[in-house]
Amino acid sequence: MTVARTGTSTGPGDRRRLQRLTLTSSITGAVVVAVDGSVLTVVQPVMQRELHASFTQVQWTSTGYLIAVASLLVFAGRLGDRFGHRRVFTAGALGFAVTSAGIGLAGSAGLVIGLRVLQGVFGALLQPATLGMLRAAYPPGRLAMPIALRTSAIGLAVAAGPLVGGALAVRLGWRSVFFLSVAPALAVGVLVLLVRTPEPERADDSRAGLGLPGACLFAVCLGSLVHALVGLPGTGWTASTTLTVLAATVAGAAFAACERRTASPLVPSAVLRSVPLVASLAVLVSASAALFGTLFLGTYLLQHVLGLDPFASALRMLPLAVVMVLGAPAAAPLQRRYGHRRTAVAGMALFVLGILLTSRLDGQSTPWASGPAFLVVGAGFCLVMVTATAVVVREAPLGAEGVSGGLQQTAMNIGPVLGVALVTMLMGAAAPGAGPGPVGGPAFTAAMGTALVVLAAVASLGALVATRLPGRTDGRGRRPM
Questions:
Q1: Is-above-0.90 flag for pTM?
Q2: For a surface tag, which of 39, 106, 135, 472 has the fewest beta carbons within 10 Å of its beta carbon?
Q3: Where are the domains of the chain?
Q4: Fold for domain 11-198?
Q5: Which residues of 412-434 are buried (b: 16+ CB within 10 A; e: fewer)?
Q6: What's the pLDDT tens digit per position in 199-234?
Q7: Do 120 and 68 form a contact (C-beta atoms < 8 A)?
Q8: What is the third-level CATH fold of 271-472?
Q9: Are 292 and 420 in contact, with CB atoms under 8 Å apart?
């Protein structure tokens, strides 16, 4: 196997300038996607009214996008490994901008849904490339801080998105929120296209295929799984859910068989053989599932049991967002001093403690009880996400940086829907018929406590897996002898 060098020799000054440009591009691309997802929920009721859409149609503006993204992230990473992350990033950014503008101009619910699915395709191209470009620009020992800053920016975007989107929707209408991402996405796409940022060394696989059969089977598997899980909170487990899960299982088995036989697998065997990388992905799935399950239940508690309005509920959860934004950069020096393993395990322990504190909240809880609980949840998850993502990017095998980034993004998309689906089933089993309203308040609160203890157990499993992460490295990303 030969190695193709795609970068050019540069001096220290040029290298630092390209690193700053790459970091800015990566952060902007990730933030654009995060803002778009966070503002949608704010404008969906107004969109439904003005477009005369049904509830199902409005739900599909989210579901269609999520299915498209989750199904294509790994294949998008494979495209980046083959043709260059800069090119794939540019295509994703420009396409995301165009579809965002199209949604803002759409005149029917059907057109909005179609454009949201197409936007999901471009979002899938964009996201793995942001990590692939960082891997190319920074040496392994210096990846932690760029990834931490990217995580901090995403947290800020998710926290500020609903506030900015709500203000725009009130002043200018729901269409205005989709124009938020047009200018930055166009700007960063053109910038990366015109300025040659670094590309990683990659295996010379010009005669290798893209793993299209495996990509199709993987897309069917994940698309079916996401569709089934997204529908669980609203409809429960139905015959349709069973058929969809069965389709996902069959497609997954066929994908595994295809990958073993083909000469050009979608996921290279070197990725699957990397214990730290696979362990990091498992940690991300468990942590994101526990986080979003906790947020799902916490939101219902604040609004339906405590009777708070959405804004007051957001203020109660604000400590979680603040600590994620401010705490992410602190994860980098912790990794350098204590290693990825200790940092992730400590973060998971903190995360489990926060979930257990949340499980003790009830209808009489004050801000002095809920605030610290959400603060600890955010601090623990922040450490885990930054550390596990850094391991995925650093441990990605040569020529599989994009696939590894795609798997990381897939884990962060699958985990939340798993978490929400899990707590929905747990709540239905623990308190059937006990809604989260005033009448069902006590029963709901008791069932919520049980569900949160289960989520803490899920996070604890992630802590055990985190012990498989690498230990401390030197400044150049090597482990001490």
A1: no
A2: 472
A3: 11-198, 211-265, 271-472
A4: Growth Hormone; Chain: A; (1.20.1250)
A5: bbbbbbbbbbbbbebbbebbeeb
A6: 655 555 544 567 788 889 988 998 888 888 877 766
A7: yes
A8: Growth Hormone; Chain: A; (1.20.1250)
A9: yes
